[in-house]
Amino acid sequence: MSLALATLIYEWRRYLAAVIALAFSGLLILAQVGMFTGIVQAATATIDRSRAEIMVLPAKSESLINSGSNGLPRRLAPEMYLHPEVVQVASLDGSGGRWMNTPEAGEKQVTQWIQLDIVDPIPGAVTLPVDYPEEVRIALLEPFAAVIDRSAQARLGVTLNDKATINGKTVTIRAFLDGYPSINQPSVVVSRDTLRLLGMADVGEKVGPLMVQIKDPARAIQVRNDLNAVADGRYRAWTRQELAQANEGALMKEQIIGIMLGFSVFLGFLIGVGITSQTLRGAIMANIKEFASLRALGVSMGALRLIVLELSFWVGIVGLAATAVFTFLVSLLAKSAGLPMGFPIGWVIGVAILLLVISLASGLMSLGVLKKSQPADLLR
Amino acid sequence: MTSAPHRDDAIRATGLSKRFKTGRSYIEVLKSVDFDARHGDLTMVMGPSGSGKSTLVACLSGLLRPDEGQVQALDQDLWGLRTGKIDRFRLDHCGFIFQGFNLFSALTAVEQVTTVLKHTGLSKREARDRAVVSLEEVGLGHRLNQRPSELSGGEKQRVAIARALAKAPRLLFADEPTSALDGENGQIVIKLLQRAAKEHGAAVICVTHDPRLEAYADRIIHIEDGAILDDRRVTSGAHPAPHSHLIEA
Ligand SMILES: Nc1ncnc2c1ncn2[C@@H]1O[C@H](COP(=O)(O)OP(=O)(O)OP(=O)(O)O)[C@@H](O)[C@H]1O
Ligand SMILES: [Mg+2]
User: Fold this and answer.
1) Residue A137 banded pLDDT, cuts 50, 70, 90
2) Looking at residue B168, which CATH number applies to its domain?
3) CB contacts < 8 Å between A and B, how many?
């Protein structure tokens, strides 16, 4: 085992402050990213878990987030079937609405803006998420039936078989979903027919994004290319993964979120470098005589610097592990509070690199202390 | 005050001077000292506190640049070398034993030794083998995997000696190596130094206050107030030379 690693393990208490500082720097960023991604994933969960390998959006849309209202001509849907591999096409529908529960005596009146999502409760429908239980599907066949995530009951002020109104029309909660929690606006799912009965369906010339199921999911990229080749500026086809990433990216690009994250990165860097470099300095000072004895025996200053940098690298690795543990615990906590988090791999890698940069920068900053390792001082 | 050149000379210093600034004045710690030491000899440097013993050793070993004078070490002009080359010289040829043991608390006895050996370009395996041999030589074959916190003071100093000797240095410098130890452990340590001189032919230069160690010396040099007062050979020398010469009084 190398000197750096052995020292880190044996004197781990000395490095605890640095490790925790790194972990909090990482957590500061990842928790926010996790939350924002969680919001996006919750908002698009119904699509992400559908059978639609391909989504067709208006040509200028860059994601589903804040992309404005429906913009595809209605006649586009049948045109998709011209591609021999397309099996099913359905338009995405739904909108925002005002929710009011019907409180019984002693209950609170809840008025709340909700996101209304639709599915087609037909076995194998492209809009029907694959993880919907059969009883949910059957429940949605009933006119004016609505389902919500189990965790949204309190916020929406309803339980099973309770009635509530959406934009003044009455619906009944007929089943619960699991795994569809939402952080900001609660989402309520109804069937396409119910949406029409509520008077909220798209009836004009324009419809929402198209969900497209194809024969072989593995050929999604090819089919997407085929569709785009004949789009002629009228639409753009995306693979589902592509769109999911674009959705996550779109939120991060929101100015205020970008500023928050940028500030967190900056703060994390400052705090991380500040504490880690001080910790490393202290650790080097504590071993300065030992380092000096190595100098006396002819070990070069360069070699000692490498030892310090190696040490800072390992501190970074341990800090990374601590970040993973902290972030995992926070995400568990958040999940249990109905706030699922998502961690895009790009951000996770970015934070990992940031932490290693912080620890190596700290190592570089503490190299100066090595000058105090004067072997002549050992001769007195 | 030095002897004539000798074929066993390991180190030969001439006109070494060293001043330190204290406040506004300078104190002259070494006053044009001439010094030599031979392979196979345990050369002891004795003298009152503050007389410049440690400073002399630092100048001889490439740790502290003298203000004036020259050091010929193993036929090289030590202070004529570039800094990096001096490091390399120490790595290749010098061992050090200090009053404090200066062992890394995180490392086991073997690791203390291999950490240095690794820098000499030995492979991990070779370094470990050499470290074990070296530790066995100082009688710590049964303490290979102990950390300093689990070793006695004498054992710690023996680890430090093993660390210094594992490189098979031609020059071995020791500054008060026994002063933190009791008499018995002091004896063990001085015998190890003596063996380094006798069996490995190193030039051992040992600074000490302890009159009990005199019995192990081949040569005793007294230094006082930065100048050599007395230099006497107490044995006939490890390598009795045919042209045995007289030491200047
Ligand atoms: N770096 C330094 N700066 C200033 N003065 C120093 C320095 N190093 C040594 N001295 C002074 O030089 C003198 C000789 O020091 P040195 O350490 O060589 O003595 P010594 O003979 O080894 O003494 P001791 O037996 O107490 O170890 C002392 O008066 C000391 O105060
Ligand atoms: Mg001294």
Assistant:
1) very high
2) 3.40.50.300
3) 87
